Fold:
Amino acid sequence: MSAVLLIAIPLLAAFISILFKKYSIYLLFAVTIFNIANVFLATEGIIIIGGFSPPLGISLLVDTYSKIALLLVNALVLVIAALNVKAYPKYGTILLLVVAGLNGLVLTNDLFNFFVFLEISGIAAYLITASNKKPITTFRYLVIGAIGSSLFLLGLIILYSMFGTLNMVDMIKEIALNNNYQELVLPFTLMFIGLGVEAKLLPFNSWVKGILGHSNTFSGPMIASVYASAMGFVLGRFITNLFNFEGMLLTVVLVILVAGIVLSDIMAFASKKSREILLFSSVAQASMIALLFVNGIIIWAVYLIIANALSKTVMFMIINKAQKDVGSDEVKSLQGLFANNLVIGIIFTIATLSVMGLPLLVGFTIKLNFLTELADAGQIWTIAFILIASVVEGIYFVKLLLKLWYPEGNLIKVNYHLSFKLVFAIIALALLTFGVYQAPLDKLDNTVDTVMEVVNNG
Amino acid sequence: MLWFDIISGIVGGLMLILAFLAINSKKLINSVLLLSGLSMLAVVAFVMLKAPDVAITEAVIGSGLVTSLFVFTLLSTRKEAKK
Amino acid sequence: MIQYAAILLFVLGLYGIFISTNTIKMLVSLNILEIGLNIFIISIGFNYQGIAPILSSVSDTGLIYVDPLPQALVLTAIVIGVGTTALGLAFAKSIYQKYQSFDLNDMEESL
Amino acid sequence: MKKLFGLILFMGLGVLIILALNNTISFPKFGSVDLSDRVADAYLDNDNVSEVGSANIVTAIVVGYRGFDTLGEVTVLFISALGVAFLFSFKKEKRLDLKFKPNFMLKHGSKLLFGIMLVVSLYIITHGHLTPGGGFPGGAIIASGVLLLYLADDKFRSNIKGFKVLEGVAGSLFVIIGLLGLILATSFLENFIASGTVGQLLSAGIIPIIYVLIGLKVGSEIASVVDNFLTEEESA
Structure:
């Protein structure tokens, strides 16, 4: 099966679904299940669109790396939509477009086509965050997002005028021939800022606080895990293949990313609201993922994206559901949340400990491995700052957990549906298994590596 | 070539002035109308740069429909303010 | 000349977005930014001797055309810009219905 | 003061970008672009032109070489029209009162003008592969015609449901034509109809068909956005 169906079928379903509005959510389930099956069947390599050979027309690039991303994105959309089918039934068509947009982002091998998909998924994200009922924050997000994609467009146009092609693989070859990194600083900076806006990297992310700080069980996980993981994969593709930061630019980017990790962990530490703690933690994770890609630690960055997406889905859903029933997201008013909900409490604790990186969980494996690789690369300062940030992270998460476990005064009542518990339990189990049993990881990371090499060699 | 530079300089300068006025004007409706004028000048620039397709599209969409959307937004809210 | 003007329009739009607190003004500035960007994109394909990329017959040889690819990209970018602007205006209107103002400063505390 | 400082700061940024571009050797100077080292050169190549069959090279790129972008672009418009309708969905709707009483001439003249605009847009859309124009401006002219009807008649309401159906059908047909390319030829959106002689109305394979669909889709989408902007909640 052709990988282009991963984009075309959701689009077709979206166009049809506005004629049958009531069934749009069922169409979404069918399409995501079809997509997940299609990911396994799709042939790898360059997929031509329109019948014109690569530099002329648009092409898609399918490899193991993009397949992992596609699997994660489609499965998460399916799970989140299924859990929210009662509370937010009107979003079927928009979610179909989200699926098409994010699949396109991951697959496309053409810079301008990437921009188009960035806009599709961006506008879909504005509409998803409209469910927060906070139009001001959404408006801010829209304006900042539009600036970000405009900067990306400016950067790619400068690249086109210099190298005369929009095809990414072609562009990488041309850049290697040109061999003058000084000239590329301006377009790469513009594109990095543009992507950084969407990927929640710290200096460009003023929208995140408004959006995730007022999120609900639908928009929270959608933005914090689905969009974050798709943008993480895309950022990884760009950083390792196209940008190849060098010289001054490398130093600046490293400093920005490390500062982003430390600052957002400190902000989370200072916050008294449970949703803000989570959102600053995911900002720190986004910077961490980018940092790993900049250092060329692709395998563990990919696992960090997956682990982060899984645990953030669980955490945002649990906290947002509690916020909806209690009416406040202050840590104080949620005290003793888990005293009545033992299962949910255990799952939340597992997810949190995994993000912190405690032994026996997947977060620990990832942290241990990438710290070793950073040490091999001689990045002593980076390691020092990551360790400081980890300590801060550990303190605020333990504080949060203690407050949520031990009640003070009257107990609060939050009812989680059985389907919530079931899905969360599966995710928690996955986090545990990946932590203890690492054989499948080792097998997988090799393939990621080799495919990256294939792409690098053109 | 010389004439091209002179005319494009005038068009570019006018566009910058209009943009500055649009950003700094006190009344919202003026700012919207200046944007429409700016878009009209952009059509001239597109024609000069030998892009007729883009010029037609910008003329219809950019200066026509976008302006009307802005004006409708302002109109619909002005009425509520009076109430 | 017009290329420089386009870049300056782009940064003027950025400036407008950063200094204004009014939703309509921000969208106007966003449109200025997009116009600047579009002219810049077209300008990188321009040639003084070039003619518009429409063939009158296939056998034309020796004619210089301007680059058609940026023009195709701008066609797409214009329509995308309209979509963003329309959605932004819709949000501005719903902000107005909630707070009776376009100015974000008037409602900062109610955020 | 803050404004002046900001202006100087951003203008400085602009000058910085200009200087950086001027110092870049690979960045071509304005007005002296050499197409031979760009991919665009191949688009102007005679063999490729007769293969695609469109005399207007921009159309050939928009619908042919980069047709996938165009599909994405109508999707952007689709989703923003969807979003606007989503934000303006009120329980009780009514037309926005423009406080403007049209006279007899305007009321009837506008209908005539609408007819003329429809014909013009039809011409622009169907000749998109020969002359400047095509689906986007053509569709936008249709939408302007609808806008004119709204302005000329205070009570006018068009059939939103009809627009939605048109939008959905045109979009679906676009994707289905793409899928037909995948089945009948080798890849998505590939041309599977003979491209004919360059310069004739009935040429260029699937390009005119797709442009008509784009025109319908863009027209109905923008028209429904306009309608949404002209409705408001009934305050009764």
